[in-house]
């Protein structure tokens, strides 16, 4: 690990190196508008983005708007997402979230953390995904399983709770990096620094990682 770096300096160097390797980090869920991202993100909990992307095209074709989704039955929605983990519960949340969007927000996606957090099936991580990827609003840092694992592996935190990790990282990094930093951790953890045994060869973080084996 590079010596004499504060956690703030190290976090920013991690961001800079990953950003150089992946200049345009994006979420890997397919969506065309904020509502589609809401639904896809609800579906992605404890499920791969790749699988979610196989079921959403038909679902969105059948119910393209919040009104359409709100008017569908839970069974109707469940029919399209049956391959997804916990599909029955997610179908209930999607229908209920769509109904709230229609009745409370006239079918328009809200753009604040508190308003999004009220929607069924939405917690802070999902709200961060929507705010960052749909609206470009940096309210926080998306911390998923990859973010938890890598922020610990890289020595940025010893916390295991994603909200506590997010708070620590937000204090280390400037707001303008927050959206991309979450994407970068996820993509690096998903495709390079995996949870499975892997080679550290060609890792852009190298000496910044206490577990680096060059």
Explain how this protein is built.
- This protein has 214 residues and is mainly α.
- The chain has two domains: 7-26 and 141-208, Orthogonal Bundle (Endonuclease Iii, domain 2); 34-135, Orthogonal Bundle (Endonuclease III, domain 1).
- The chain contains eleven helices and no strands.
- The protein has helices at residues 7-21, 34-44, 49-62, 66-71, 74-80, 87-105, 113-118, 124-135, 145-153, 162-172, 178-191.
- It is elongated, with a radius of gyration of 18 Å.
- The mean pLDDT is 95.
Task: Spell out the blueprint of helices and strands.
Elements: H1 7-21, H2 34-44, H3 49-62, H4 66-71, H5 74-80, H6 87-105, H7 113-118, H8 124-135, H9 145-153, H10 162-172, H11 178-191
